[in-house]
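WP5 quarterly update. Target: DNA_MISMATCH_REPAIR_2 domain-containing protein. Source organism: Rhodnius prolixus. Length: 387 aa.
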Amino acid sequence: FQTIYFGLIFAEQCRRYPTIEMFKEIGDMLTPEMYYMANHIINILDLEKMEKFNVFIAREGFHSPLDRAKERYSKVQGVLNKVTPYEFDSVPEFINKIHLIYVPEMGFLLVIPFWAENLTNADLLLPSLQLKFCSNRVAYYKSWRCSMLDDLYGDPLTDIINEESKIIHSLWNYIRMHIHCVISLINAIIDLDCVFALGMLAREQNYVKPELVDENVLEISEGRHPILSCYLQSYIPNDTSLASMPGQNLNIIHGPVASGKSLYLKQVALIAYMVHIGSFVPASRVKIGLLSHIEVRIQTYESIISRSSSLLSEFRAMGAVTLKTYCRSLIILDEIGRCASEVDSIAMLASMINYIMNKDSNSAMVLVSTRLDIVEDCLPQGGRIPY
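Structure tokens (predicted):
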């Protein structure tokens, strides 16, 4: 209910700025049905108290049966304090402590702690009192005064819950008939919130506007990881240059373990993704063509449910990637064959690279990382692969 109400208020504010496209779009979504819903919500719900106590609270004066039940419930504590001394005078003298309580759906009860050890059911039977139940060495009784209070006040808390449930159900049925308008408005506000978040991040982290071109290229100057660069002052920017043409569509990054290869690959993939969601990017310059796919094989997850070995899982992952080497694709491969022997790893890497190099001139752009030193000897000769 609060989402609908405050969403309507936000849309009203957006109407004040019709020259801003996204604000105008949100403002134009306001319909008479949404105003009717907001009017119902304001008249029925006490939003200030709901925000304070985080429970459903109907506005006073809206529903008479609910108001009467709340009035009866507000008097319960005072009645308990007044009647308790009279109940204490009517119990046997060996009982030195009692309480009078109200329990929803059970009414008013007299609470008497056990007055001795090893009491039997017969010992718990007291004159003029009806034993209801026992729990944790405490007996609960119904006296004639409790029955009188039940008749006089009824079960106010249960009545409150029932009446509030009726109100919620009725209000929700009304809102549900026009919920499509609300969903469209909320989705538009979410989009605007994302744009604000991206804009604030770009300003705080000095992001730049990427240059979108028709060519299938990816050129990044002084690129940074969008997350780690915020926390590591010693982060070193990196460049990337790829194009969908022989000799420029595949780069191999070689280095020892923990040298930053995976981080670099993730950085390139994230920058490419951020461009496609309309964000500025963490770099000094980015030139990129629109991509149809970003395929990433950073880690192969193992599971006993798959009923396959680590090597077979690796083969399946690589097979899925090779099926998507389209012209407008960016493929990121990290440590191919890390779960296999060195010979098998080299074979997998070399076969994958040969497959990509033998594609036509409009093949995908590929970044591959490896820790293997002798992989260069297994690659096609002729200087076509940056290494």
